[in-house]
Amino acid sequence: MVIVRPFKAIRPARDKANLVASRSYLTYSDATIKEKLDHNPYTFLHIINPDYKTGKKLIGLSKFQLIKKKFKQFINDDILRKDTKDAFYIYQKKDDINTFTGIIGSSLVKDYLDKRIKKHEQTLTKREKVFRDYLDTTGFNADPVLLSHEPNSEIKKILTKYTGIRSEYEFTTTNKSLHKLWVVNNPLDIKTITEAFDKIEYLYIADGHHRCASSALLYSNNNTESSSYFMSYLIEETQLNILNFNRLIKHLNGLKISEFLQKIKDKFTVKQKNEGMYSPKLENEISMYLDGKWYSLILNKKKYNSITDCLDPSILSKNILKPILNIIDERTDKNISFLDGKIALLDIKEKVDSGEYKIAFILKPITIDAIKKVADNNETMPPKSTYVEPKLRSGLTIYPIE
Fold it and tell me: Whole-model pTM above 0.85?
């Protein structure tokens, strides 16, 4: 059974929540970050980019120390405040299509180490260590790990109770998403949430594998009360929106188009599709756009050595990317790009037609059941196999590491 506990979050004053909250800085262009930093003195981006006015980009420990200094300045200026009571935080994000409602709490690192919190993605040791050092130096974590859980009636009751009353925060962002947050510090409600998670056997990492692994490294070094937990956003698995990641490749590895197609036909049934842009629909089907034409590719092989092997990203990697296109490491090869399923097929087509890329592969989204099977079998999927929503705003709840 998993352990989830409340904590005393550091968070924005109510009137500044919409100004503090930001997307991950990695999703902004340099120009957009500059505009936000120049015109919004409250954005959390100031904490993450404390060196932007110096004209000199810092890295490593020097930057982490500046981040810590800027974080403390936000607290001293009363932009951020630490709660006086332990609490859970119900966070809801709503757009025209989806409504995501879950609980922000602290999850036990030992549950991750003991595989009660299960992963489906490989992590890079270098990135783990960098983020561990970041946590250790700055003393806070502002981005919860997204964890999914099986449906639970007691948790649903709590969510229904709070989402029916006025929220602590409510604001709409420029992408037309409505964000709400409720503070749950009533002892009886805290007990209900805690006991409900005590009855759940496993949690599954939907997004944040490196944050989880880094928190485990930090705990192994520090072994303090606060470092024995990490901040998580826990949401029922049926609420997740799992999109695909499509692959665009810059070359054919020196092959002519006819030679490339012939090599694919050794393992796939290849059919040209003449009805316009084509997305895959069938089992083990991948669609391909090459030289102005759309194709359906279905692997002829019917037996697989593992659960992961039968998933589209692995099928593509093991049968086309590595042996034919010489894309050996998808995490580092500069000839491959990944576009999430929100990017329209027309935009992908135009990138190939323009000559920026030579070929595009369109994959189907992977189901939550498939992700769980991979995790339950202690397997990992290729990089960029899934794009999982919700994506949360940084800075609304901050977990202090003391």
Answer: yes
Identify the DSSP state of 300. Answer: -
Cβ neighbours around 319 below 10 Å, total:
20
Q: Are strands 80-82 and 10-12 parallel, antiparallel or unpaired?
A: antiparallel
In this structure, what are the phi and psi dihedrals at residue 106, rounded to the nearest 5 degrees?
Answer: -115, 130
How many angstroms from the chain centroid is the CA of residue 361?
A: 22
In the predicted model, is pLDDT for residue 56 greater than 90? Answer: no
What one-character-per-residue DSSP string does 157-196 give? HHHHHHHTS--SEEEE-TTS-EEEEEEE--HHHHHHHHHH
pLDDT-derived band of residue 23, with 50, 70 and 90 as boundaries? confident
Question: Do residues 298 and 364 make contact, with C-beta atoms less than 8 angstroms apart?
Answer: no
Q: Is 4 exposed, middle or buried (0-12, 13-18, 19+ CB in 10 A)?
A: buried
Mean pLDDT, to the nearest integer, of 388-402?
A: 94
Q: Cβ contacts of residue 174 below 8 Å, gap of 6+?
A: none
pLDDT digits (tens, 9 = 90+) for 251-289: 999 999 999 999 999 999 999 998 889 999 998 899 999
- H/E stretch holding 231 reads strand 229-236
